[in-house]
Amino acid sequence: MDYVVEMLNIRKEFPGIVANDDITLKLKKGEIHALLGENGAGKSTLMSILFGLYQADRGQIRVNGKDVNISNPNVANELGIGMVHQHFKLVHNFTVTENIILGLEPKRGLSVDVKSAAKRVKELSEQYGLNVDPNAKIEDVSVGMQQRVEILKMLYRNADILIFDEPTAVLTPQEIEDLMKIMRNLIKEGKSIILITHKLKEIKAVADRCTVIRRGKFIGTVDVDSTTKAQMAEMMVGREVLFSVEKPDKEAGEVILKLDKVSVKSNREGVVAVKDFSLEVKEGEILGLAGVEGNGQSELVEAITGLKDIVSGKIFINGKDISNFSIRERINSGIAHIPEDRQKRGLVLDYTIGQNMVLEIYDRKPFSERGLLNHNAITEYAQQIVEDFDVRAGQGVESVARSLSGGNQQKAIVGREIELNPDLLIAVQPTRGLDVGSIEYIHSRLIEQRNRGKAILLVSLELDEVLNLSDRIAIINSGELVGIVDAKDTNENEIGLMMAGIKRGDTD
Amino acid sequence: MKQSIMKKIPKELVVSLLAVVLGLIAGALFMLFTGNNPFAGYSYLIKGGTMSIERLGNTLATASPLILTGLSIAFAFKTGLFNIGAPGQVLFGGFCATAVALSVNAPKPLLLLLSVSAAALGGALWGSVPGFLKAKFNVHEVVSSIMMNWIAYWVVYYAIPAYFKGSFLETESRKIAHQASLRVDWLTKLFDGSYINLGLFIGIIAVFVVAFILNRTVLGYELKSVGFNRHAAEYAGISVNKNIILAMMISGALAGIGGAIIYTGNAANLQIGIVPTQGFDGIAVSLLGANTPIGVLASAIFFGLLYSGKGFMNAMTNIPPEIADTIIATIIYFAATSVLIERGLDKLKRKRRGN
Q1: What are the counts of helices (DSSP H) followed by strands (DSSP E) for chain A?
Q2: Does the CB of A350 have a partner CB in chain B at under 8 Å?
Q3: pLDDT per residue over A200-244, tens digit each?
Q4: d(Cα A330, Cα A321) in Å, to the nearest integer?
Q5: 0.95 cut: is pTM over it?
Q6: pLDDT tens string A261-297
Q7: Which of residues 398-437 of A touch B (CB under 8 A)?
Q8: Which of B1, B220, B236 sits opposite A359 (nearest CB)?
Q9: The domain at A3-237 falls in which architecture?
Q10: Assigned fold of A255-499
Q11: Of A207, A362, B331, B355, which residue is 20 to 30 A from B318 by alpha carbon distance?
């Protein structure tokens, strides 16, 4: 059997942790090989070794059957290994072509020969069905298109072995479909692909084989066709995983949140992000807000929580008009908010977990009295959240928030917000970037909140999440409400169409 | 909480001490290059600041305003602001204190309370302007507070000759009465006629007050939240704008009190046309003290020693006094690049563990 890449018995230690312990990964020519593992399992370390960013302490790497020593990314490039990073590395006010040739500009005399480069880019784009305009500026194209530019960058450098690092994290469902097609095209043209992911669905859809690692250890390589999702999940997590959470039927009660023709301006000058948006969220229900990223969800949430002023309309909580309330007054009226960006909004990274757990309530008794903090009460309260929500941190509540892994930071925020016991919980991307174990846990806590008669507004780009958790689903497109459907009698297809702005019934 | 602090302090202490040692080594090299004996130089430098009870008092007196300006900068740093306007706040605070000292007649304790309060208010006013501009219009505080330095400079330049002209010179105010001075007889006697004054105690009290505010109060929690991550603070409903203005006012008040110590304690009048260097030195004091109140106290005394010893070193050797300033500058340089020292330490540790 021909292997294009063989990573044999790789070991890599960092101070205090073994990131990779005797891991073997063999990539066949012309296959899509998934690399599956939880957050922090060691996937990125392994791939960084292959890409020359780290050196392995032990083990061998062979490319096309030959032993190689990949001492830096340039060596990897020469060996035909290319990587599409999760966070794109593009210059925004450059064109597609300018970005692709950056670093190896073709010269004619003293000037850069952009024209012939653009021609080459166009040829490559057509060959692989990428449909990229070589002369478009990066800032004008969609996220999915930017990713294709990253792919083109590798192809332009004649890479044969392509590493995709969590490529679907930033894409819409339609863009994911397109990406899958592109990956299949690449295989057809003789490339080989390593796909780093923790999404089982995508592995099932596109990969041939799958290597699973857990806590730095090699668990096994399986054939995707003959392995079920549940089996792979169990290999990854080390225990059985429930995919859909038990959700008893529940009659929704009184209206908790009422939006009445709310309009919000966008962060960009002169653009309206949310237009005349009306919505009700009731007690004992999870209302999912589905939409393609950047269609006004963020602005709507900021308007409800008070981070952004509304232009017109009214917002009610429990029948009380809170349109002009300050952020703190809204929190005190019973709104909790799991923010979209945990590091920007959710945590003060230089504070300890303990200090972070009282971010909204430090001025209440018993955490402070007459302007003085009560550190013991704060620690005790935080301790409870850390235990209840299984936040893993080296020094417990004394750990600086920055030192926690993303998943544990997220669990801490979710814990803090649920512990506020809010009437309305706004959960924005509550499981972004988390592994199945943590996702399962956070989902069950959200459902528990619902069962206790609280209202939850769930905003997520993951359609599966919205479909699984919600009782009703509202779809937003260009800041307008396209429609509200019952989660029980809809499907991914219908919602996908509505996300594109096509109303129910229009398709008949 | 205790555990993390215990673990933190040694590392920061080591970094600061290394900065000092590196600065002293650099100074020794300068002395060698100028043909002098560094051991003699340093021994005179230290003797100059400590060899008699009077000199010791002068060292502490020199350190007193630096404690306040160091605290001022450190407080601003902790709340995410760079208060480079301390010189202006010192000057205007000192002017307010001098004005009160020269125009109010009251018993000494009351008069001192009034003049120091006036200094704090003046400094707070001078700090509040950049704070307000930052909060409302997002004007960077470095730019606006440097402007405020010059406004203070020219206000004092005009106001002293116009209202408080000295008896001989146009360029300085009248001397303040002993009754209005922070100097007290028992302290002067205790230190053999040194110009040490109550400013030292004000400084020490300020250290504890600032530490208390930052670590134990709701106010400190809010200020630090805004300083560390204003987006998260806003999300949690903490008023970012209010806290920025408040932080600049407190920082300014601290510097202003430093001004009172300089002009109504260490000195007895205010000379125009001079930007008080203690304001800028506060930056160095704060950096070397790792922006912690206790660290500021220690590093202010160290700087006080360098400043008061350099004259003696100059008198006893051929080492130019600029060398002392060069050493100070080098230490500032190492303290400011403490990240590099820290990284070096980490590397060293890792290597040792690796082998």
Answers
A1: 16, 24
A2: yes
A3: 888 999 999 999 998 889 999 999 999 988 888 888 888 777 666
A4: 10
A5: no
A6: 999 988 766 678 899 999 999 999 999 999 877 788 9
A7: 398, 400
A8: B236
A9: 3-Layer(aba) Sandwich (3.40)
A10: Rossmann fold (3.40.50)
A11: B331
